[in-house]
Amino acid sequence: MKIMGILNVTPDSFADGGRHDTYEKAVARGLEMISEGVDIIDIGGESTRPGAERVSAKEEQARVIPVIEKLSQTGIPISIDTMRAETADKAVAAGASIVNDVSGGLADEEMHERVAELGCPYILMHWRGHSFDMNSRAVYKDVVQEVIAEIELQIDKALSSGIARNNLIIDPGLGFAKEAEHNWEILRRIEEVTDLGYPVLIGGSRKRFLGGQSPDEREAATIDLTSSLLAKKIWAVRVHSVAPHKKLVIANG
């Protein structure tokens, strides 16, 4: 299992907004994650917390591109966390090697074709709408089957756009248009997601369904979540703290 470290270059992300919102802070945190053994650094310049308003493409790129240019020089793989094809393009030119699109291509109709042209790995997440109203879309009869069906639709679009099958990674989108019970049901039946045959990314770090009054109070539960996934054929976990998760992976060989 790989450890993907979250680096939000934003003032308003739910768990760490403002902690790394300058170039200097972001680069320092990136270097710290590298020292802790991170496998991939996921850099984002737009918060996707519930209720968040979108920033402009110009602002998003101003936040992330200089940080990507600097940290990519270390040789650690960098993923760009963006819903915009234009930002993905500029990020890869700056040194990113993976595109992590939480909308799975639904937010920008040009994304799949652009990623196909870039020829890089693409993380396709289950998504039903932007942050400002996604909670109202958390309505399911069978959340696992519906999430899988909706992911498969986007997979088909991605493949038909020219993205190579072996470049696709999927993410069931914990917390995105999902209530706590939906997240837990997905985790309980995660084998149904891995059985699709694609690498799977899980991003549950410090999210509300884990309990606790604040994101920092959910760190122990996040570590427990990673521990529970070690035997589940998960490609990577996306986490805020690197060291304890890396320690778990190493200890379990």
What class, by secondary structure content? alpha/beta
Q: State the helix count.
A: 9
What is the CATH C level class, in words? Answer: Alpha Beta
N-to-C order of helices and strands: EHEHEHEHEHEHHEHEH
Residue runs with pLDDT of under 50 for 5 or more positions: none
Q: What average pLDDT do the residues reach?
A: 93
Shape: globular
* Rg, Cα atoms, Å: 17 Å
- Provide the helix percentage: 25-40%
| Number of discrete domains | 1
Name of the CATH superfamily: Dihydropteroate synthase-like
CATH architecture: Alpha-Beta Barrel
What is the CATH topology assignment?
Answer: TIM Barrel
Strand content: 5-15%
The beta-strand count equals: 8
Output the strand order for the largest sheet.
6-5-4-3-2-1-8-7
* End-to-end separation: 10 Å
**Main beta sheet:** 8 strands, parallel
Give the tags:
single chain, transferase, Dihydropteroate_synth-like_sf, alpha/beta, TIM Barrel, dihydropteroate synthase, 253 residues, 9 helices, EC 2.5.1.15, magnesium, 8-stranded parallel β-sheet, 8 strands
Q: How would you describe this protein?
A:
One of its GO terms (cellular component) is cytosol. Keywords: Folate biosynthesis, Magnesium, Metal-binding, Transferase. Its cofactor is Mg(2+). Its EC number is 2.5.1.15. InterPro entries: DHP_synth-like, DHP_synth_dom, Dihydropteroate_synth-like_sf, Pterin-binding_dom. With 253 residues, the chain is α/β, with parallel strands linked by helices. It has a single domain, classed as TIM Barrel. It has nine helices and eight strands. It has an eight-stranded parallel beta sheet. Strand 5, helix 5 and strand 6 form a beta-alpha-beta unit. Helix 1 packs across helix 2, helix 2 runs parallel beside helix 3 and helix 3 packs parallel to helix 4.
